[in-house]
Amino acid sequence: MNETRQTLLEVRGLKKYFPIRKGLLRRVVGNVRAVDDVNFTIRRGETLSLVGESGCGKTTTSRCILRALTPTAGDVNFLTEKQRVVNIATVPKSQLRPLRRQMQMIFQDPYSSLNPRMTLLDIIGEPLLVNGVGTASDRRDRVEELLKLVGLPPEFMSRYPHAFSGGQRQRIGIARALALEPALIVADEPVSALDVSVQAQIINLMLELQEEMGLSYLFVAHDLSVVKHVSDRVAVMYVGKIVEIAGTEDIFQQPMHPYTEALLSAVPKPDPRLRSQRIILEGEVADPASPPSGCYFHPRCKHVIDRCRTESPVLEEVQPDRFVSCHRARELTLAGVQE
Amino acid sequence: MSQQNAPILSVENLHTYFRQDEGVVRAVEGASFDLYPGQTLGIVGESGCGKSVTARSILRIVEEPGKIEQGNIWLRTSGSNGSSQRVDLTTLDADSQAMRDIRGGEIALIFQEPMTSFSAFHTVGNQIIEAIRLHQKLSPKEAREKAIDLLRQVGIPKPERRIDEYAFQLSGGLRQRVMIAMALSSDPKILIADEPTTALDVTTQAQILDLLRQLQEEKGVSIILITHDMGVIAEMADAVVVMYLGQVVEEGPVDDIFHNPKHPYTRSLLKSIPSILAKPRTKLATITGSIPHPYNRPAGCSFHPRCPDFMPGRCDVAEPKLQKLNERQVVSCFLYDNLPE
Amino acid sequence: MSVAIEPQEQETVSAQRIFVATQWQLMWWRFRKHKLAMIAAAIIILFYVGVVFADFLAYADPQISEAQRSLLPPQPIHWYDGDTFRPHVFGLTGKRDPKTFKRVYQPDPNLKVPLKLFAEGYEYKFLGLFKTNRHLLGVEGARAEDTIFLLGTDLQGRDLFSRLMLATQLSMVIGLAGVAMSLFLGILLGGLSGLYGGAVDNIIQRMIEIVRSIPTIPLWMALAAAVPTSWPITRVYFFITLILGIIGWTTLARVVRGRFLSLRTEDFVTAAELAGAGQMRIIFRHMVPSFLSHIIAATTLALPAMIIAETSLSFLGLGLRAPAISWGVLLQQAQNIQAVALSPWLLYPAIPVIVAVLAFNFLGDGLRDAADPYG
Questions:
Q1: Which of A251, B85, B133, B275 could hold A246 in an S-S bridge, CB 3.0 to 4.6 Å?
Q2: Domains in chain A, ordered, with CATH?
Q3: Would the CB atoms of B288 and C4 count as touching at under 8 Å?
């Protein structure tokens, strides 16, 4: 990994609470801490994967970064084209449009993410149109170019989404995201709705586009196998907090947080000869509306000590470029997966 | 053949079609496989491959206008005097008492989405008790005892309390456990699990798979595991059936499927799945194109337009038949036609 | 770039046609399969053709009454005169009943009144554009017997068929006007409710609940009582549509609100937002086209309710009043059982009400099924 890469995005102390309202007067009686003090950075040209189980806050985090949701607290510092740092979390809504050109999104569901009533030309050309890029014929040329880029014949641009399979639709979604030549793409589970044989095509496409265009990805996923194929670094979330961030190789081979270890162990390995003794986590994921005391993971952790029950750990750099939020990170030796 | 090694369920040349205005969907076309006692048979394939319809055909719960057009489904049951007899489920009326006794009696089903399989108006306990009393003559009190016992067996903490809760009060993992408890209530010989962990997170998935394995060891139940996830197959199955567009392309022991696959589809699929064992940031081999719509299935071998070993004039003309390759493996591909016996 | 172009699947011409089809084409292809709805659509088109040509289809001035011809039974058309094709009706000869001294009319087979196409009759303004006196059917002749009453006459001796034509015109149009009114209110208020949410949504939702909780008949009665008897017919007419609209908007408002709410969280709407599209573009390019077809279907299903409402109001004497002619006004004559027993043809105006309402319902069902061709 190139250490001299510029930081493109820096997330500091990001919080998003959803109020729980009760009663006739809709009074706030508590908060669901969907995202609770999340910190990470994304460098130019790299892929950071945000992984975790459903409800861990990874999707909410990604929506806050794009300001599709307004964060409760924290900074989302983004380095613009003009080398200026802008805090997306606080910038007035009226100034968002030029920033949004530089960060786009790929959605999970290839069916609901394309307006069925618009042709590919209109769908992929929309970002260009609303940002006033070029004339109608310029836009047409650009859409043609984009379709070729994602591996679809340009003649298809007069067709509607219903003419395409899930994988092809996902290519269309990627073409739309690329239309404005963004620096950052937030991909929210981009392959989880696709068939296995099609997943590979989309993963490869994303890798190729990244090399070609120097894109940065924030890749939100629950499937660790997919994550391993696309990421430079991985951040693991549990109940609204990041528990570990490290380079892909490091985190998979030698996880430093017990939750990461359990997560890796739980992934079914596609080799019957590796049927192993897996770590089966006891119990259930904690409720973000009333999380346990101390470390949120302590009721399920087999390395728990008294300190974990009372004191919540902070994310600290235990080795160069490895951040872990665990009191025992330095003393534990945990098992990863072999290649 | 000894009693122990005889298959408990044999599907022979099963054809299930859906005749609709727009055309005929040949959802299952010529599936054959055997399930042995105490074994886990994995049926794997992508969307539209017919794996779920196969399961539904066995249980005779194929939705309209689907119909079993051809084939036999032999179920071995033990008679009252201990002797075993074979019933062809395709000859039974889907709504007959005999079939209803088999469904939820001899053969139980676990669905993908546990939420929709439970009524929102009854506690999960009452639903299990109802299922128990449908097949066994027990008093309400005894049935409740048994329900609590079942919930304990599937690893639900504080079953005495959970039994009076509603499905929506339970997490996805607990709901799936309750569903398994319900399926076990009639002491089935065969458990059909249709994507039992697809809706669950990995750690919960690991819990459920572990539970299934443990129950199999304790009760000797045979499992048909239907999934699209090769990882789950590798972890769970003893034997594997690979399906593509309604047809069985390859069958064999799990080790052969993963380490000595024969059919080009199986090979390509294994190469194209993202693996946690791969090196970081490696590209995957891909299968070109996408799965054709069931209405316009390619002529000849339905995999030929995407096949790396496509032989023009052969694969696009004739349909290959399932043939025995050796003692263990069965494959449907022209590549193996001219092999010496 | 090494990304492979996906191999083209074998595409038939019909498949390609589907791939470039707009939502309206897809809907039409789907709607076409719904036989009952297609028949219903044809019937409704017929009705509206009748609406346009009401005066042309009528042949007798619907307002001219003649006590002499009170409650005449329908005269059937005889197509052949001997062996030649010459449509005619039998003329009526009046006699006095020796016992009751009432004048009764009997068809006289010797008195053949020939029917004429495009005959001259009373003068009217066609669509308010030009004056004419041509009618589709008619009898010409000056004799007292030269009359035709295809559906008989009412108590005042007015030709029921001609009156029915004009009643159809008014009832079908008032239904449309009422729906237009509720559509306007429904889209406006439902849209505000769904788009802004919060307090606005709360107020509008409570309003809908209040309107819906008022029993309709007393509400109609109260509103109708507010119509001064001195008002001219056009103003009453307008007021009645207003009443219908005020009662009918709530359903549509709910449909619109629901659509807005579900579309607001739709991924493609988020995508448009992230692309930088403005509020107006998102509403009119993405959201409105997505529910327009549903609105059309809901509107079609709301029309029969409007027609029934107008008919019931007028039947009860609360809606339109003579000299206006609507289905309800015509049916008012069939209010007493004796009249119906003696002159059953007075109930005929109920038939178009039933046919129109059924046709609208079937059409609405068909449209609703076709409304989401992507579902």
A1: A251
A2: 7-102+183-324 (3.40.50.300), 110-181 (no CATH)
A3: yes
Three-class SS state of B277 = coil
Q: Tell which B residues from 296 to 325 touch C, by Cβ distance under 8 Å.
A: 296, 298, 305
Surface-to-core class of residue C98, CB atoms within 10 Å of its CB (0-12 exposed, 13-18 middle, 19+ buried): exposed
Residue in A199, A230, A281 closest to B281 by CB: A230
- Nearest CA to A179 out of C91, B216, C277 is that of C277
Our CA dihedral for C8, C13, C14, C20, rounded to 10 degrees, sits at: 70
Three-state DSSP class for residue B198 = coil
How close C205 comes to chain B (CA, Å)? 27
Residues 10-39 of B with CB under 8 A from C: 21
Is A208's CB within 8 Å of C3's CB? yes
Tell me, yes or no, whether B268 lies in a domain.
yes
From the list A66, A108, A159, which residue is nearest C19 (CB)? A159
CATH of domain C37-52+162-370: 1.10.3720.10
Which of A53-62, A234-243, C61-70, C280-289 holds the top average pLDDT? A234-243
Q: How far is B275 from chain C (nearest CA, A)?
A: 21
C103 is written with which tokens?
């004048």
Phi/psi of residue A13, nearest 5 degrees: 55, 35
Q: What's the full length of chain B, in residues?
A: 341
Q: Find all residues with CB under 8 Å of C104, minimum gap 6, and list them.
A: C94, C95, C96, C97
What is the domain range of residue B136? 117-187
* Residues 66-125, chain A, touching B (beta carbon < 8 A): none
How many whole angstroms separate alpha carbon C356 and alpha carbon A276? 71
CB-based contacts of C75, cutoff 8 Å, min separation 6: C89, C90, C92, C107, C148, C149, C150, C152
Q: Say if B157 falls within a structural domain.
A: yes
Tell me the per-residue pLDDT of C233-258, one tens digit each, with 9 for 90 and over: 777 777 877 877 877 788 888 888 98
- The strand order across the sheet containing B66-78 reads B23-35, B9-20, B66-78, B84-88
Q: Where along chain C do its domains lie?
A: 37-52+162-370, 67-155
Q: Which of C7, C15, C33 sits opposite B289 (nearest CB)?
A: C7
Q: Is residue B24 part of a domain?
A: no
Q: How many contacts (CB atoms, under 8 Å) link A and B? A: 156
Structural domains in chain B (count): 2
Q: How confident is the model at residue C2 (pLDDT cuts 50, 70, 90)?
A: very low
**Nearest residue in C to A131, CA atom:** C276
Predicted ipTM?
0.87
Using one digit for the tens of pLDDT, what is the confidence trace for C320-337? 777 788 888 888 888 877
Locate C64 and state its tokens.
């001219």
Judged by a CB distance cut-off of 8 A, whether residue A104 touches chain C is: yes
- Furthest-apart CA pair in chain C: how many Å? 106
